């Protein structure tokens, strides 16, 4: 049975923040098929927007969400990328949607400044989290109930996981592949991506 991985996209989203995890999970599915012969993908990966209208990522890349926050399939993992998140922080509908999904029964992961959106829901209160190095102090100031730490590529708090800036989302996604699949699959995926997987040791 496939695991549904939903990636939220919005205007001014950082391209690698969402494209990195997308590539990791879709590549992991290919590697799983090669290893097991199972034709059903291990991960069913799709994008979700506030609506299905196209969004314009940073630097102008147009992205057409597969689903909206109102009509997407059930999720096993929600990924919240970063970018310029000021407008998203002020969208009550979006923050409420993230809050409803960010439960102990589901993995919710943020990349870079996507941690601000997750923190806005209160789901990071009393937990450790990280974000882009440039935004660490702003996050500490805006969300004093969150233990914002620096120096790690990702922080795993069980049901909620956050990663540092941009490319760290790839490292975190490989960690999630290990959690949802196994270590061998994560390592094979990193090899296929020709990516030097940086772990938290």
Structure, explained:
Residues 6-178 form the DJ-1/PfpI domain. One of its GO terms (biological process) is regulation of DNA-templated transcription. It comes from Pseudomonas brassicacearum. This is Thiamine biosynthesis protein ThiJ. The chain has 201 residues and is an alpha/beta fold. It has one domain (3-193): Rossmann fold (3-Layer(aba) Sandwich). It is built from 7 helices and 11 strands. The strands form 3 sheets. It has a 7-stranded mixed sheet with strand order 5-2-1-6-7-11-10, with helices on both faces. Helix 1 (15-36) runs parallel beside helix 6, helix 1 (15-36) crosses helix 7 and helix 6 (168-180) runs antiparallel to helix 7 (183-192).
Question: Which structural traits does this protein have?
Answer:
single chain; 201 residues; alpha/beta; Rossmann fold; 7-stranded mixed beta sheet; two-stranded antiparallel ribbon; 7 helices; 11 strands; 19% strand; globular; Class_I_gatase-like; DJ-1/PfpI; INH-QAR; Thiamine biosynthesis protein ThiJ
How many structural domains are formed by the residues? Answer: 1
The gyration radius over C-alpha positions equals 16 Å
CATH superfamily: Class I glutamine amidotransferase (GATase) domain
Structural class: alpha/beta
> CATH topology, anyone?
Rossmann fold
Principal-axes geometry comes out as globular
Largest sheet: 7 strands, mixed
Q: Strand order of the main beta sheet, please?
A: 5-2-1-6-7-11-10
Q: What's the number of extended β-strand segments?
A: 11
The percent of residues in helical segments reads 25-40%
Strand content of the residues, in percent? 15-25%
């Amino acid at each position: 049975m496939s695991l549904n991985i939903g990636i939220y996209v919005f205007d001014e989203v950082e391209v690698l923040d969402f494209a990195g995890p997308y590539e990791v999970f879709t590549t992991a599915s290919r590697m799983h098929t090669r290893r097991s012969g199972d034709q059903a993908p291990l991960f069913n990966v799709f994008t979700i927007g506030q609506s299905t209208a196209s969004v314009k990522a940073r630097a102008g890349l147009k992205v057409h969400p597969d689903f909206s926050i109102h009509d997407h399939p059930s999720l096993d993992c929600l990924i919240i990328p970063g970018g310029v998140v000021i407008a998203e922080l002020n969208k009550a509908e979006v923050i409420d949607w993230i809050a409803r999904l960010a439960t102990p029964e589901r993995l919710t992961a943020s990349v870079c400044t996507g941690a601000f959106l997750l923190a806005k829901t209160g789901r990071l209160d009393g937990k450790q989290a990280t974000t882009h190095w440039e935004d660490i102090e702003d996050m500490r100031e805006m969300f004093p109930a969150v233990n914002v730490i620096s120096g790690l590529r990702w922080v795993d708090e069980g049901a909620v996981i956050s990663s540092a800036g941009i490319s760290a989302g790839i490292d975190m996604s490989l960690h999630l592949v290990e959690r949802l699949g196994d270590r061998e699959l994560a390592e094979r995926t990193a090899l296929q991506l020709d990516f030097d997987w940086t772990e938290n040791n």
